[in-house]
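Hi W., the magnesium ion complex you wanted:
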Amino acid sequence: MNANPVISVNNLTQQFGKSVVLDKVDLKVHKGEILGILGPSGSGKTTLVKAIVGMNSPTEGDITLLDTKIPSLKVISRVGYMAQSDALYEDLSAMDNLLFFAALYGLKGKAAKVRAEEVLKLTHLYEEQKKPVRNFSGGMKRRLSLAISLIHEPDVLILDEPTVGIDPVLRQEFWEKFYELKSTGCTIIITTHVMDEAEKCDRLALIRGGRITALSSPEELKKQSNTSTIEGAFLYFGRSKDGE
Ligand SMILES: Nc1ncnc2c1ncn2[C@@H]1O[C@H](COP(=O)(O)OP(=O)(O)O)[C@@H](O)[C@H]1O
Ligand SMILES: [Mg+2]
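Structure:
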């Protein structure tokens, strides 16, 4: 068994011009874990997950994914990424969107079609597969984005605010999928600014101003901060850092 963390972020600093957006971030995520990154808008969540999928080159520090230093083309083929805003081809059908992304991962022909049908079923879009995406609702687009992130059966799934703007029923369904994927050994990072969603994660990294202020299970964070809510814990750890 490989006990190394699946994701290891080491002393990561990301600067854009003079502004330091991530400040010496350390983070390790283990196989089959759902790690939440919770922080307000502008705290650096997207910048952090983009760094993990190799879309930004860090100013300092490094990231290891599946025992490989990134950026690495080989390793990126084992990672699914769902961006904060849907990146879909509006004029193509759901199926054709999936086949397009499948081809990027080298999946073609019958195998691509079969896998596309699987993820369409998984996200309850099977009946809508021929419709052009421009006629999709916001929730359907999010579901298709999730389907695309799963097309190549990734070992690691990085989801940037996947449930923003979707109704509570669909949010619940998404979480059922995340737990299913976790049970198959998939390692998941999910960013959120929603407190009740954060409670569903195995561990939570609280991020504020580009720094991780606390990292533990939701239960442990509440205990350590002597509060009954994640919101309370967030404020507590934010304060104690600011006071340094
Ligand atoms: N490419 C970039 N160039 C300059 N500033 C950026 C860039 N990307 C993000 N930022 C800044 O970094 C900060 C964190 O942004 P982001 O990671 O998107 O936060 P979050 O996802 O938590 O809302 C913001 O102040 C944002 O304006
Ligand atoms: Mg963001």
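Residues 168-183 form the longest helix (16 residues).

W.
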